[in-house]
Amino acid sequence: MPLKPSKRELIFPLAVFSVFIAIVFVLWNNSLDTQKANYIREIENTGSLRAKEFFSLVKYNIKSLENLRQRIEMTNGSYFEYWEKDAGLILEQNPSFRFVEWLDSSMVIQKVTPLDGNRAAVGLDLTQHPRYPEWKKHVLDSSTNISPWTKLHQGGSAFLVDAPVYFDNSFKGSVTAGMDFTSPFDELVADLDKFAILVKDERGTVFYSKNNPRTSEIEKEFIFTTTFEVDALDGQKWTFSLMPSHLDFLAERKESTYIYLAFGLLLSFLTSSLIYFYRYSRKKNKYLNDANLKLQDLNTSLKREQLRAEKASKSKTEFISNMSHEIRTPLNAIIGFIEVLKLSEIQNSLQEYLSLMDISSKKLLLLVNDILEIDKIESGKTTFRTDTFSPLEELKNIIRIYKRTAEEKGLYIDLETGGEYQTETIGDIGKYGQIITNILRNSLKFTEKGGITILYEENIIDDALSINITIKDTGIGIPNDKLKTIFDRFTQVEAGKAKRHEGSGLGLYITYKLVELLDGKIDVTSQENIGTEFQLSLNFPISDINDTTNSVGQELIDLSGCKVLIVDDNRVNVMVLKKTLENLGVHSDSACNGIEAVEAIKQNDYHLVFMDIHMPKMDGLSATKEVRKFNQNIGIIGLSADVTKEAIDEAKNVGMNDYFTKPISFDKLRRHLPNYLFKIS
């Protein structure tokens, strides 16, 4: 039966609760006043700053007109023959100007720039115009006159600004401009969404507003108002007002204070409750104290382990990324020289080895790329390429690579198909090859006698190709207790110091994840000392594009006479690319850093630049920025072993036309070079 609290035990907590409630309400009221004062101060600061910007802009535009007057006066009217050109420059540089016109001494409009849209004003006699007395007074004072917001004879409204011109000791006329500050004002306040702005002339005419200002609905203390004298002679002043753009401008701030109020009330209640429970259960306080200390120790330990795990994960990611970059750089030279050898005369007996080297190096490149995606697989950020390929031909290529390894072990690899399939599909050939390669290597590793039989079958279902591949070996098999965990990370059939086969235990895990991401299915059955069988099912969209047609077309393009600059600090990379370009009939020069590249481009007429990203003295990105300062037309293609999207985006943002990741194949150059090069006649 629970114990009922005594009155004595309740008095102190209730007293504490009452005091806390009083403090909370006092602080809440102070917070409301502070919020209001801060907001008024923010309005005043913002209004003062924006008003200065507005009126500085007006002064600057009026000064541009007065400068034109000074040029005419200083040359005693000789500069007047450049009137239209100078007026055009003013209009082009100052969006506030609608037109510039010349009024002669009798106040008749003689010239208007631009003439289109203002023809009606030419020849207009302004002696009967309401602003004539004002204009005449400024002529006598030789000061610049600014009219109120005026309706124009040719349509629309604007401020008319007159700058009287004197030379040869006599008044010659005035340079007059029609000004509308809406466009430049809009640029000044483009980021000012939570405030509204209202600007009026001396007559109270609103000539600019922003965000629907409602002065009659907002209290005056929340409206910042200031004036600016635009015409001292006439005492003309413009009024600038800034206010909140929404009527509920304090609602969001009050909402936060209500949250604090609720939190304060809750905190008061909880504090009083804690005091009560503390007094009620102080006999058990030691036990709770000990438990709390243990919990703190556990949290500290967990945080330490979490930091250790995050550091290990970051180190792993950096290691994989760096190693991949380092592997791709020499691989660029290997693949490049293979491409060169393929195009040279070589003994027929070596052609097959060269072909196997070509296939193997490209498979190595695809494997390196897939290693980079291990982290992406686990974080759900994997991306897929869209290659056009034949699944059967790709399977045959993989078998050719591993057939020699099998023969060296005294094993066979047989491929059985239900027919000669020629279907081309669209998908990620790298990930498809990674799946097949991982399973095949696993089978070869654990097979000592006999061999591997691969069954391939494909069926067209609607517009997709359904592929079924069975890879069956005569190896050691998988124990039943490990069959369910074969696709887990770091899981191996053999374990301990006596295991005979090496491996990381990641191959089948990566395979399973890739199949899962491709919406496929993979199963395994096995018997110890008899063998293991993997069943793989995948679906790919069918391609209706014939790539061979495009290749032939590209070969017919003559690139002789074109001149290219190769910028790379790696001598081997320069040799490979230079030789490849020679086979296409393209002459090339080289530079080893960005500084040399900039000077070479200034002194020579190149049609294209291959720009390495990472170089000493000046990198490729900085060099591209320098080139774009004086040459916007030359094609620049970035080169790097960095395959991340961030690196590609950065290269294109500084002005590169394209970005090739190393290694670069002959076929890729042949397909893309015609986009940047042309034959010199």
From TrEMBL:
This is histidine kinase. Its EC number is 2.7.13.3. The keyword Phosphoprotein applies. It holds the Pfam family HisKA. The keyword Thylakoid does not apply. Gene3D superfamilies: 1.10.287.130, 3.40.50.2300, Histidine kinase-like ATPase, C-terminal domain. Residues 322-542 form the Histidine kinase domain. InterPro entries: CHASE_dom, CheY-like_superfamily, HATPase_C_sf, HATPase_dom, His_kinase_dom, HisK_dim/P_dom, HisK_dim/P_sf, Sig_transdc_His_kin-like_C. It comes from Flagellimonas okinawensis. Residues 288-315 form a coiled coil. Residues 563-677 form the Response regulatory domain. PROSITE patterns: HIS_KIN, RESPONSE_REGULATORY. The chain crosses the membrane at residues 10-28, 258-278. It catalyses: ATP + protein L-histidine = ADP + protein N-phospho-L-histidine. It is an enzyme of class 2 (transferase). Keywords: Coiled coil, Kinase, Membrane, Phosphoprotein, Transferase, Transmembrane, Transmembrane helix. It comes from the Bacteria. The modification 4-aspartylphosphate is found at residue 612.
